[in-house]
Write a structure and sequence with these properties.
With 314 residues, the chain is α/β, with parallel strands linked by helices. It folds into 2 domains: 103 residues, Response regulator (Rossmann fold), CATH 3.40.50.2300; 203 residues, Vaccinia Virus protein VP39 (Rossmann fold). It contains 11 helices and 11 strands. The strands form 3 sheets. A 5-stranded parallel β-sheet has the order 7-6-5-8-9. A 4-stranded parallel β-sheet has the order 2-1-3-4, with helices on one face. A two-stranded parallel ribbon has the order 10-11. Helix 8 links the parallel strand 6 and strand 7. 43% of the residues are buried. About 18% of the residues have low confidence.
Length: 314
């Protein structure tokens, strides 16, 4: 069986997919190529595959033009909209593909899994990597800048650099009317950035809880808290749609660019109401959309993880 894996740069995803398929069955004839091949294979792809026990350090990005004269049993595309926008895709598919084309559609994965996978990668990188790496989060073909909405926290009391991954879309603690002694819950707490700023506001007599469902984020947040030595800050694993927290616990609930990532907004807001004390309040900084998003964006899992596709409509 002959399989061609097609993408833009042939430096990251397609190289990884080719190597994985070879590792599954060495009887397969598998090639990968790019429409605009890069100069070399991406270092992060090499590192990830090395951790999986597969060496692609000697691989070289190739141009798809070298394969146009061949016939393939299957073609796998790993860039969005290749079936509509890639001329090479059409040339190959119209004449050279014997069987059904396979196109990766990441929306077929559970949205929560996509979000979890994306933010696991983010958690393992520095703020600088998340802000500047062309392949750091979304991969070499990514069109999403996960730090595009982020604010500068450096001047805020309680700021801890290791907790700042360059995420978020505002600073909810500035508008949340948090008082000394309050109990505060941060939804999607990440590495703890907003929690530590909230801790500076509630003081020794208050309490701050961060909830997140990504293990890598929780690990990072707890390590940061251990460094800071706070006894009244904790990080809990849980889903915002079904929080493992008791009723009527918190004076204030905050959220920074997270509710757009939650598939069922109604459940999330119902949970916020449940855990708030009578008379408590919440403050949300988030992405909203005025009007309707194009279907193409609504069905793009990477754009969902990038805080766009799941934005609440005004």
């Amino acid at each position: 069986m002959k399989i061609l894996i097609l993408c833009t740069g042939n430096s990251c995803r397609s190289q990884m997919a080719e190597a994985f398929l070879h590792s599954f069955d060495n009887r397969l004839t598998v090639c990968s190529a790019g429409t605009e091949p890069a100069e070399k294979v991406n270092e992060k792809a090499i590192q990830v595959m090395c951790e999986a026990g597969i060496d692609i350090s000697r691989n070289i990005p190739k141009s798809v033009s070298r394969y146009l004269s061949e016939t393939w049993d299957y073609m796998i595309t790993v860039c969005a909209d290749a079936d509509r926008n890639c001329l090479f895709h059409h040339a190959l598919y119209s004449k050279k593909i014997r069987n059904t084309i396979l196109t990766f559609n990441f929306m077929e994965k559970n949205i929560k899994s996509v979000v979890k996978d994306t933010y696991t990668v983010i958690a393992r990188q520095s703020k600088e990597q998340n802000e500047t790496s062309c392949c750091g989060v979304g991969g070499c073909c990514s069109t999403v800048d996960y730090a595009v909405f982020s604010e500068n926290y450096r001047q805020l009391k309680g700021y801890h650099e290791d907790a700042d991954l360059g995420l978020g879309c505002g600073i909810p603690t500035q508008f949340a009317s948090i008082n000394e002694g309050d109990s505060v819950l941060d939804l999607g707490s990440g590495a703890g950035n907003d929690c530590f700023v909230a801790r500076a506001l509630v003081g020794e007599t208050g309490r701050v809880v961060g909830i997140d469902f990504t293990d890598a984020m929780l690990e990072k947040a707890r390590k940061n808290n251990t460094k800071l030595g706070f006894q009244n800050v904790e990080f809990v694993k849980g889903d915002i749609e079904d929080m493992p927290l008791e009723d009527n616990q918190f004076d204030v609930v905050i959220s920074n660019c997270v509710l757009n990532l939650v598939p069922d907004k109604r459940k999330a807001f119902a949970e916020i109401k449940r855990v708030l004390k009578p008379g408590g309040h919440f403050c949300v900084s988030d992405v909203v959309v005025k009007g309707n998003l194009p279907e193409k964006l609504k069905n793009d899992a990477e754009m969902y993880a990038g805080c766009v596709s799941g934005a609440i409509e005004m």
